[in-house]
Design goal:
The chain is mainly alpha-helical and 374 residues long. 73% of the residues lie in helices and 0% in strands.
Length: 374
């Protein structure tokens, strides 16, 4: 029985789950302590509001509607998470998911509002734009040995200001926001196919939600069940060994970053083509969605299926922060607690390593004890 328990703890999926739960509990605990330090009277209500999110509403119709809104924001976060973990599996750190998300937004909205294209062509354009930007970092890595982190960070800001400039051509005259799809090109809205009816007629719940989950499954199949996935991971482990074995390591690096960029670009299209948000052409900060994808990827144990649940959780607590009583806490307190939990999500691999070290030490002591008895 003890051996079965030990083998279970050695299982990578179990370790990822336990480490993720530990990070979540620690984040909530530290957030609660921060609330107690600021205003003890409202700490219990504030932390419950963050955890409950849409469950704070008493009517089931309101709960379903706002649950749907959480899912709408989960889809793009999941795609950014898949973008990060796909590159990480191949030995690359795609911190450029934020910039790829931005260019995906620009391509999708310009095709929708400027060129009046249907939604599926706008979605393809977003994927292509994100893939192209990702390929730039891949090219620099493969042929110039430029660290992908440096090139991605630079491209994030270049992408932001280029997209701002592009989308000023399709923005409202009296505001910095782009035109709404509903009033400009309804054909560019991703169809709901009846999904909105399941969430109290929430029109923003579209095919993007199940499509994102399907993409996660396809990414898992690509990485774990195909020859291409094996070659990509082999290149990430050791590009020189991969080259010696006849693999085209430079092509694999470029392809990896292109696929990662395409995933982030698709995530942007899933959000903005639902009509849920408009792009602000004067914003000077890269959207947090791409950076939150890093936390979601690690919280999910760098597994595509785990990323589905971790992306939902992060979006759940982020949305739940909006229900904190603003008369007792500043408007930024919800962002602070959400950021605190997201920050701790990055320690999943650390806790997994610590767990393995503990198991190794325990096995060594048992072995020594068994040898001494003999």
């Amino acid at each position: 029985m003890k051996n079965e328990k030990t083998s279970l703890l050695r299982n990578g999926a179990v370790q990822s789950l336990l480490a993720s739960l530990l990070c979540i509990l620690l984040g909530l605990l530290l957030g609660y302590v921060a609330l107690l330090m600021i205003n003890p009277a409202g700490a219990n209500g504030a932390i419950l509001a963050i955890v409950e999110n849409f469950m704070t509403y008493s009517k089931s119709t309101a709960q379903l509607r706002y649950f749907g809104s959480t899912l709408v924001k989960t889809a793009p976060l999941l795609m950014c998470s898949l973008s990060v973990l796909f590159a990480y599996k191949v030995g690359l750190f795609n911190i450029g998911a934020a910039g790829q998300y931005v260019v995906g937004t620009g391509a999708a909205l310009y095709c929708a509002l400027g060129l009046k294209l249907p939604w599926f062509l706008c979605l393809i354009a977003a994927v292509a734009a994100g893939a192209l930007l990702g390929a730039v970092s891949g090219l620099l890595k493969a042929y110039c040995n430029v660290n992908e982190v440096i090139s991605c960070i630079m491209l994030n800001w270049i992408s932001l200001y280029c997209v701002n400039l592009l989308l000023t051509k399709v923005k409202e005259e009296t505001s910095p926001y782009t035109y709404t799809l509903a009033s400009t090109n309804e054909g560019a809205l991703i169809p709901s196919m009846g999904l909105g009816e399941l969430f109290s007629k929430n029109q923003y719940v579209t095919l993007a939600v199940p499509l994102a989950a399907l993409v996660a499954v396809l990414v898992w199949i690509l990485l774990e069940k195909t020859k291409l996935g094996y070659e990509l991971k082999a290149t990430g482990c050791n590009r020189f060994a991969a080259k010696y074995c006849g693999m085209r390591e430079k092509k694999n690096l470029i392809l990896t970053m292109a696929i990662a960029g395409g995933l982030a670009g698709m995530g942007a299209a899933m959000l903005f083509l639902s009509g849920f948000e408009q792009w602000q052409c004067t914003q000077s900060a890269v959207p947090a969605m791409g950076f939150n994808g890093i936390a979601a990827a690690f919280l999910g144990g760098l597994h595509p299926i785990g990323a589905i649940f971790s992306s939902y959780f992060i979006q759940h607590i982020t949305n739940g922060g909006a229900y904190v009583d603003k008369t007792m806490y500043s408007a930024q307190i919800s962002d602070f607690i959400s950021a605190l939990i997201i920050y701790l999500c990055g320690f999943v691999l650390f806790f997994k390593t610590a767990m393995n070290n503990w198991l190794n030490r325990r096995d060594e002591k048992k072995a020594e004890k068994g040898g001494g008895e003999k």
